[in-house]
User: What shape does this take?
Amino acid sequence: MIRLEKRPMPSRLWTWATPVLAVVLTMIAGGLMFAALGKDPVAAIRVIFWDPLFSEFAWYYRPQLLVKGGPLILIAIGLSLGFRAGIWNIGAEGQYILGAICGAAAGLAFYPLESPLIFPLMVVAGALGGMAWAMIPALLKVRFGTNEILVSLMLVYVAEQLLASMSIGLLKNPEGYGFPGSRSLSQWSSSANPELIAGWGLHWGTVSALLAVAAAYVLLNRHILGFQIRLAGQAPRAARFSGVNPKLLTVFCLAVSGALAGLAGVFEATGPAGQITIDFNVGYGFTAIIVAFLGRLHPVGILLAGLLMTLTYVGGGTAQSQLGLPFAAIQAFQGMLLFFLLGVDVLSNYRMRLRRRGVA
Amino acid sequence: MDLSAINWGLLLASLMVAATPILLAGIGELVVEKSGVLNLGVEGMMITGAICGFAVAVATGNPAVGFVAAALGGAVLALLFGILTQFLLSNQVATGLALTLFGLGLSALLGQGYQGIKPPSAPRLDLGPLSDLPVIGPILFRHDLMVYLAIALVAVVWLVLARTRAGLILRAVGENPAAAHALGYKVVAVRLMAIAFGGACAGLGGAYLSLVRVPQWTEGMTAGAGWIALALVVFASWKAERVLLGAWLFGGMTVLQLNLQAAGLAIPGEYLSMSPYIVTIVVLVIMSSRRGRAALAAPAGLGKPFHASG
Assistant: This one.
């Protein structure tokens, strides 16, 4: 019989090795799933994980990694701060939507004026929009003790309805022949968020994601607030005694994660998506939860995890067209990854001991 | 708007139907939380139940077999959560979220090719003279069997929790797992059973959506019903009978909102569609602001991992 023994300190080796182990296990289980769907598992894994990086068409896919990875990393960095402190913002998808709506609305108010100030204004409006949406669960938690998980989640469904209403109502393109959706933001030069270097896929969303990684690293390792966040998560009672204000921490963590999700939304609306539409959101807010955990809630880990997760999106898209693999299989695959990660995590906190039955 | 266009009798009748999915999922989650486990994967288990039930009902032509399959599907998925949280001691919040994300993907995958199909319809229960009663008959006594089974389930759960030894053990495990362990109760086994029961209930709730309420299969069709079921448990302050009350309240809200849309209220449909979620938030705020009592109501061991060696 196997017995678990708690380690005095989490194992450093396993803390880094478990994400790798989880990825390997997911590839095996995912391969079995692909085989069950009647696809060649080896080919599927190769198309998803190898081809986008190293095949002869990789020049086309590599920029895609930066385009799609930006929003995921940006959102995950914000979420990770709260998760570390035990504050569960699960509604990033809603904050992402609100960021896109507010950013687009701020820009479209000036259409068709051309000015270099419009894009920065939209970015600020987007961040504030996402932040405001995250303030609802934050203030309700601080004031009434309401569970932030449920409130932030309910607000995702509210935001989706709001998005639908905006794309057929207030923000609808008056010259759009009655189709739902806003004016094209990527084609109006004042609001466009184009590639910064041709052929790289790098846009402002990716740049701000990298800045967020650096800022989060500095905050967590060099700043008292970062120390308080870590303390609140690891030892809430000790944190209380050492003068950490849990209410302030709740507001701060939700504000930052909301603002970052809002930023991701506005960069996506002005760049890769190009406009506000009913189905503008594609679940980045939820996938970012997986990214945050896979990256061990560590900024650098999240950067790597975000790129890996983007690989499953980009490679998954190729697998869809080349092998006829349904996109839902990729979604299940991503969920599986989180499962395995949480499962093998036991290795970093506990030691496995073999023991004979009957010995107490 | 023409309020007289709303048939209030029909509205009350459809309230019973609208409440059933969240009632089933909610009463299951209540049992899980009573055992001290917080499973946030209700949405994932519901949607998995919805497609399992739908696929099997279509294949066999028998909705009853579909419901059994849905319960099994939900329970199997829940046990995955159980293994991770009880044996591998993973974080319950994160694992529950993983369950939902995985369930949404898995159900979309299983549901390929089931879109646009009509499931075999569940027969209405014929209660003879009761069904023919004026006014009350159509409201209370002309539904399918699951509506009544769901209500009966609430009664059974209430009875077991309040009046039996098994219920006592379950509550002890949820309140103080260390003490229950010291008394010789198998904490992990009790919790696994509760988790499987919760999963089966959520699966039934999902299948009720895809087989009776909607009835068809679309990706992501639970649309937050699982989360509302979680809110329901908070609303009910962990009391079985209040889950029934809450489910009727939320079911009523959903039905009223749909009726108002149909009656052509001057508010755009999107804003009416938001209302069940907003009501859920408002109810959560009211319940949590009465802090003293709500805090006492939650099982003391809720969400904390338990490991015998300490």
About this structure: Chain B is about 70% helix and 0% strand. The two ends of chain B are 63 Å apart (CA to CA).
